[in-house]
């Protein structure tokens, strides 16, 4: 006798690692080792984010807020692109919010509330995800995707804080070069990559060829900014 249903029956597997679940785990979406792994990665993310955020503000020099206003103290730190993009909108905070929103929608809840800047939002998203992880491992059928996202996010943060450098392009602020006739700053958004120290303004064509000249660029940007604040 042939029972096609018996032949096609598959023992339930973890949605994250694909291993067969233990009998005691049947009905779960993810195995317990996977749940533990996500929990420990999530628990580490707030600390990693604080480190990334601190690194990013050092790279931005005195450009934001009132701290470190002395131009001479602003070092020409090459932008670590992966660091800047992880702390910016679309980075860690946004990716965690997307996971939180997916879980909320599966739970029939409203989307995540506005939680302020990435630095303010990251710990709140993490808190939500850790609190609801037991539910997700138990009953969220897309958990595999999120386990992978969290694994990748954790790996990217760790790599960004290590010495690896990868190419990419980031905005590093407006061009400070002043037009001799009008006295106005060029203002074109400048971009830089970690793979090439040369910065060239697409607006006025001014070049900053090497990292030593970045210091001059930073000071000029600060001078323009302070001039605008004073005006
Ligand atoms: Zn697993
Ligand atoms: Zn320019």
Number of strands: 4
Task: Count the domains.
Answer: 2
Report, as a whole number of angstroms, the end-to-end distance: 90 Å
Strand content: 5-15%
Q: What kind of sheet is the major sheet?
A: 2 strands, antiparallel
Question: How much helix is in the residues?
Answer: 40-55%
Topology as a string of helices (H) and strands (E): HHHHHHEEEEH
Low-confidence stretches: 62-76
Any idea what the shape is? Answer: elongated
Strand order in the largest sheet: 1-2
Question: Helix/strand/pairing class, anyone?
Answer: mainly alpha
- Alpha-carbon Rg, integer: 24 Å
Average pLDDT value?
82
Short overview:
With 231 residues, this protein is mainly alpha-helical.
In terms of topology, how is this protein built?
Layout: H1 4-8, H2 32-60, H3 81-87, H4 92-107, H5 118-139, H6 143-161, E1 170-174, E2 189-192, E3 199-200, E4 207-208, H7 211-230
Helix pairs in contact: 2-3, 2-5, 2-6, 4-5, 4-6
Bound molecules: zinc ion (2 copies).
């Amino acid at each position: 006798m042939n029972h096609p249903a018996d032949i096609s029956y598959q023992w339930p597997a973890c949605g994250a690692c694909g291993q067969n679940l233990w009998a005691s785990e049947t009905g779960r979406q993810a195995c317990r080792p996977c749940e533990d792994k996500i929990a420990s990665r999530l628990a580490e993310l707030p600390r990693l984010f604080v480190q990334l955020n601190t690194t990013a503000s050092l790279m931005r020099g005195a450009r934001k807020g009132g701290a470190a206003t002395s131009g001479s103290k602003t070092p020409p730190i090459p932008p670590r692109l992966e660091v800047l993009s992880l702390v910016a909108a679309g980075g860690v905070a946004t990716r965690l919010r997307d996971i939180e929103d997916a879980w909320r929608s599966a739970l029939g809840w409203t989307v995540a509330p506005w939680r302020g800047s990435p630095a303010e939002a990251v710990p709140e998203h993490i808190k939500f995800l850790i609190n609801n992880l037991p539910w997700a491992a138990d009953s969220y059928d897309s958990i595999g995707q999120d386990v992978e996202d969290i694994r990748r996010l954790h790996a990217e943060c760790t790599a960004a804080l290590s010495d690896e450098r990868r190419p990419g392009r980031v905005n590093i602020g407006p061009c400070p070069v002043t037009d001799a006739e009008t006295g106005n700053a060029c203002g074109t958004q400048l971009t830089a990559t970690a793979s090439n120290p040369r910065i060239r303004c697409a607006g006025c064509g001014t070049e900053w060829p090497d990292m030593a000249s970045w210091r001059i660029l930073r000071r000029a940007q600060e001078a323009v900014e302070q001039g605008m604040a004073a005006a």
